[in-house]
Structures are given as C-alpha cells and as structure tokens.
Design a protein that fits this description.
Strand order of the largest sheet of chain A: 2-1-5
Structural class of chain A: mainly alpha
Radius of gyration of chain A: 22 Å
Mean pLDDT of chain B: 73
Shape of chain B: elongated
Strand order of the largest sheet of chain B: 1-2
Largest sheet of chain B: 2 strands, antiparallel
Oligomer: heterodimer
Distance between the termini of chain B: 101 Å
Order of helices and strands of chain B: HHHEEHHHHHHHH
Mean pLDDT of chain A: 76
Largest sheet of chain A: 3 strands, mixed
Number of strands of chain B: 2
Number of helices of chain B: 11
Amino acid sequence: MDLLRNPRSLPAAVASPAAVPRAVPLRRAQVGETHVVRFDHHQRLQHVLMMSSFIVLALTGLPQKFGDLALSQWWVNTLGGLETVRAIHRTAGFVMLGDCLYHLCYLGYRMGVQRQLGPLRMVPSPKDLRDVLQTMIHFLGVAPEKPKFDRFSYLEKFDYWAVFWGIAMIGGSGLVLMFPLTATAFLPGQAIAAALAIHSDEAVLAVGWILIMHMFNAHLAPWIFPFNSSIFTGKVSARRYVAEHPLEWARIASTGLVPEPLPAQTPADEPLAAGTAQDASPVLRPRSGDGELSERTAGTSRFVETAPNLEPPWVGGDG
Amino acid sequence: MRRSSPCRCDPVTRRGHATNRHAGHGLRTRWISAALVAVAVACIVGLPRAAAAPPEPLSEGRSLNGLCLLCHSQSGLPAPTGGRQERPIAPVDPAAFGASAHGGEECVDCHAGQSALPHPLRTSLAQWGAGRATPCSECHPEANEGYLDSVHGTMVKLSDARAPACGDCHGDAHTVQPLQGWTEQERAGVCAGCHPGAGTRFLGALSHEEPSPDLLPSAFFAERFLIILTTLTLAFAVIHVELDLLRWLVARWTAHSGETSHGPSPEPPFASGGSS
C-alpha cells in the first residue's frame, strides 16, 4: 500500500510511463514472456456463457423488435418461425440469468467464505471520474499521459456494471413478458407494456454499447486487432499489464516474487502456436491458501497469478 | 350488304314488331321461361324476403346494404374458393348488424370490390390475417398502429399463424359493440380465450394507443428514460472511440515524423486500458 501512496517508490518500469515497455499486439509471440493470470477458470467460463447467450439473444431478439424489416422476416423464417425463435430466445435468456446467478454465487463464495475482498475493487470510486476526465484530456492532447489504472479501469467497470444493470432490466422485463399472467398477479397490467418498452429499448442500448465500445477495445482497435484473448486464456503479458494496469502491477511487484517483464524471444510477428505458452508451464504455484509459495521450474515462460480478486495479490501457478 | 335479322320488323324503327304474331309468341314463351327460372332461383336463395322488400334502384347516395343482405342474410350460401370446393358464407343478421357499432357503415366500405356481380373471387376477410391485411385499419389507423407495435403485432409482422386478428378479440365485425360498452369481466373473458386465467388486471397489458402520461404512464416514462440513456451512453461510446483512435493516429504520425528526423521514437502505449 505504501507503493500506492508513494508512486516514486515503485520500480522504475512501473512508476514512469516513459519506461513502460512498448505495447506489443497480442498476435505477436509471447513465448518466454512473463504472463499474469488475470482471470480464473470461473471468470472465463462466466464470460463464455455471457458472450454466447448475448449473441443468441441479440440474433433472436432484434428481429422481433424490427419485425418490419425483410431481413428480420427472412431470418425468422429461416430459423423455423416466430415460435421457434422465441423458444431459442427464452432458452438463451435462462442461460444468461443462470450465468448471473453463477457469478453471484462465485462472488459470495469468494467474499463470504474465502474472505477475499478483491471483487470490491470493481466498485466505482471518485478516481474513476477523474480518470475519465484525464483520459479525455489526454485524448485531446492536453495531458501527455493517460491515467494509471488499478485492477479495473473505468471502462471495465462500466462494462461490468452495465451488464449488471442490463440483466436486471432486460432479464426482469423478459420474465414479465414470458409470464404475463403470473406478473399481473402482483403487478398492474400496464407493467407488461412497460416491460415490453424496457426489454426492447434496453436491448438496443446493450447491443449498441457492445458493438461500439466493447468490439473496439476487444477487437477493432489497431493495437488490439484482431483479438484480445485474455478473457479466454486468462493470461495477459506482463508488459501489457504494466502498461494497462500499472497500479496493480506495482502491488504485484511489491511482493518481490515477480520477475521483470522479459522481452519477446521470438520474432515479433510470429503467431503464437497453440499450447506453446501452456506447455512452457508455470514456475510459481501456491502450496496452501495462506500465501506460502512453492516454486517449480519448467520451460522458459513464467506465469504470475494475481489470484484475480485477492487482496493482497498472491503469486501462483498457471491459469 | 345489310345483315339479316331474325326479327322481320324494321331493324331501326322496330315497326311491325307487335303485328308479328309468330315472333310475339316466341317472345312470350321466353319471358315465361325466364320467370320460371327466376322463381326457381328465388326459392333457393330466398327471394321471398326480397319480394317483401324489393330493392330500390341503385343510385348515388343510397345504401346498398339491403341489396347485399338479400343473399348474405341467408344461411348456407356457398362461395367458390377458387378450387373445386365451396365454403359456406356466414350469414349476417340484418337486425344485429344494424344495432352494431358498424350499423351505419356500408357493406362495400369493408368489402371493397364486392359491389360487382358476380363477386370477384376473393379470400374471406376473416382469413386475411390480422393487422395490415384487414380493412379495419382503413377506419382505425391509430388502433392498427398501436396493435402492430404490441407483442401481437410482432406475431403479425413475422407471419405467425397464431397472431390474433381484430375479430378474435373484438368479435364479429357485423355484431361488434363499442368497447366502452363492455364490462371488464367481458373484456377479461376475451383475453382468457388465449391466456387462460387472465383476470381484469390483465386488461392493462395491451392498448391500441401510444403510451402517454395519462395512458400507460409507466411505459411512457420508461421509454423516454431509456431513449435519453441510450442516446447519452452511445454518444459517449462513439466520442470515446473516435478520440481514442484519433489520439493513436496522432501519436503514430508524431512517432513517424520523429523517426524520419530524429530516429525511432516509442509507440503510443495501450490507449484506454479497457480491453482486458
């Protein structure tokens, strides 16, 4: 925590943006680099469930909202008619609601049983507002540096809470539309009309945000294109981590167990072969839950697990 | 060369027609035959009712309903379907029609094109499907728009055979009564036809009018709120992405200029930190 209060005490590679290693597109080889395991298995699975159900919901929901379009009518007929489309849509909706429940249980276990308060880092703070302003000023060229982010930047927090908000709004209204008679047992009838408005309009907001902001930051940005795989592999290169989340990297570095980011040992444009990084195997693995570490060396890559939501971060095995 | 006529009277003045006894006998025979056929047809289709109230000559501004009801008040009237089979036409009770909400309307207002005889082969209005295909929207355009915006309208747009037509909820157009005259229990009973168990609370679920602060206020304010929220959020997203990209382009251009004049310079770091 001293490092956070006094950035000057941070290692030079973290404290000074000028010393931050150059960004390397994700398609470039990362063999031999230190990787940070940012997302655990549960988080990766939750994202896969969320992503797949969201895509299905969008593909089966938007044609219903824009039923006047010939494309919608063709697509619905191709899928087997409106009844089939609604069945698929509702099934995907239950998958998304189940995923939300899964995530809440995951959070409850992390925070309630394991006493890990790391997820609280996702709670918005005044710093996020300052970061938004500083980012905009940086974009306009007034400020030379962009803000230093902790574990979650304001955009990641926005993404996360937007999903929470969206599921509450779209999921709740969807249940009202799916069970109108049950809903009117304890709600006024006009709640169904309101649910229809909320369900369809909120869906446009969600799809618009994903198509514009999420697609840009995860795929279309030139420094990302074509794909940021960290949410699927769980791993982020240390060099990238230092650049994107310098404040958290400072905490990781403060443990003294984290090696400095290594330069890439392969040609920059060579694609990473499937399984190469996995085969390189981790070197640091937790022996018990008290943070005591055991070390195992194999291969040339090093994986540092931040134990995604742990406070303080601990260093462990591969993802 | 003048064409020969079967009648020997003057083809222009018709003089001598009455004096031609042979021809007059033939004419009488044809009239008698035609009358017999007419009586036979009338017996079938119910001309006795027509005889009691013979149709008035067609003229501008006069109702044709009486003429239509000559046949369409009868039960068992068949109509061709275009194939080999015929379907029965549901009879219209003139008294019930006159007392209905549409009692003052002309039959041809809804059944356009059917004033010609024989009627052009057309599909029954009841089979045209709901919403856009029915003639109800001609006189009730706002209700039709509200209907098409509802969950029922989505079924129409996407060709769902289960989509309720106007008559499925409001009843037969020939006997329909103004909605204001319905009790809530009667209206809920209509809903329960497709939604078993629907009670009077369910009635507020659907309206053919646009939500307003007075009608469906929750839907009205929810929609307005989401329009504002969507606009602001997506505007922020677009501006953020554009500025992010612009900053990256400027940094690249600056770096490129620096390389050409002072050697290589560092690339811009990750822009927003929002991708992992």
